[in-house]
From TrEMBL:
Active site (UniProt): K12, D141
EC code(s) of this entry: 2.7.1.148
GO molecular function, one term: 4-(cytidine 5'-diphospho)-2-C-methyl-D-erythritol kinase activity
Similarity-based family: Belongs to the GHMP kinase family. IspE subfamily.
Enzyme class label: transferase
Name of the protein in its database record: 4-diphosphocytidyl-2-C-methyl-D-erythritol kinase
Pathway where it operates: Isoprenoid biosynthesis; isopentenyl diphosphate biosynthesis via DXP pathway; isopentenyl diphosphate from 1-deoxy-D-xylulose 5-phosphate: step 3/6
Domain GHMP kinase N-terminal stretches: 69-148
């Protein structure tokens, strides 16, 4: 797409996710460590006669291209907040590489990437503070996906603390190709007031320190998600025994699970072995996204 503005929408992985409370309005309070991967959806945008969304890619058929798509809602909200800043029409092309409803923040990442695209196409500069405030109106994961760098997240997802350093690590992601409803997972959560994550090492720049810290953390959504998708337990067990895996866990509200590795070689070998052990599942090896 010559002349198009382009952005990537990196997958978001919750290395740890603690549910620490619930507000009166029903939103849950979280304490989570989020990282992002080289594995990403791809988006392009070009001026057009009218707004349109074209969805392609391996998981493109799983997404609508109308107003129910978060990408279109991001475009509508941007136009409403910043009228006359954009061309009369914008055609957005989303190439979907991440599974849908998978605990990887795919829809939120796509919406965040669109906000970055629109800010780049805008006739006037958009202050970061206003762009992040707009992101928060689209969903709890959108601000962290707009940042797309390792961060400690609190509140309902709106309070971000970017980490100044993070070790170079690799992930293997495994999804059983079963979509999971986040509200259904929270509905099955037994305890909504759990302890926070322990304090992060300062600086967090060594893989050994990260691995040790993660041993004292958890994903509080993993047990209820496993009730909906029993395969999660088998996937985590299969990842955990692969050579070089320092942690196996579910990401977000599932059903994607991950293994954490210190080298690309270990991650790629684990992905190869897991494809043989879990036929029919989506398996991908990827490094963490670096600044």
């Amino acid at each position: 797409m010559d002349g198009a503005f382009s952005e990537t929408a990196p997958a978001k992985v919750n290395l740890a996710l603690h549910v620490v409370g619930r507000r009166d309005d029903g939103f849950h309070l979280l304490h989570t460590l989020c990282v992002f991967t080289d594995l990403a959806d791809q988006l392009w945008a070009v001026p057009a006669r009218k707004d349109a969304l074209i969805v392609t890619g391996p998981f493109g058929a799983d997404l609508p291209n109308g107003r129910s798509n978060l990408v279109i809602r991001a475009l509508e909200k941007f136009r409403a907040q910043f009228p006359d800043y954009l061309p009369d029409g914008i055609e957005i092309h989303l190439e979907k590489h991440l599974p849908v409803a998978a605990g990887l923040g795919g829809g939120s990442a796509d919406a965040a990437a669109v906000l970055r695209l629109l800010a780049a196409m805008s006739a006037e500069p958009i202050p970061d503070s206003e762009l992040f405030a707009l992101a928060a109106t689209l969903g709890a994961d959108v601000p962290m996906c707009l940042l797309s760098r390792p961060c400690e997240v609190t509140g309902i997802g709106e309070t971000l603390r970017p980490l100044p350093a993070f070790p170079h690590m690799h992930l293997v992601l495994v999804n059983p190709l079963e979509e999971v409803s986040t509200p259904e997972v929270f509905k099955r959560l037994v305890d909504r007031h759990n302890p926070k994550m322990p304090p992060l090492p300062e600086p967090l720049d060594r893989a050994a320190h990260l691995s040790l810290w993660l041993q004292d953390t958890r994903n509080d959504l993993q047990p209820p998600a496993t009730l909906l998708v029993p395969a999660i337990e088998d996937i985590v067990s299969a990842i955990a025994v692969t050579p070089g895996c320092s942690l196996a866990r579910m990401s977000g509200s599932g059903a994607t699970c991950f293994g954490l590795y210190g080298s690309a070689a270990a991650a790629h070998q684990a992905a190869h072995d897991l494809r043989e052990k879990l036929p029919g599942f989506w398996v991908a090896a990827t490094p963490l996204l670096e600044d």
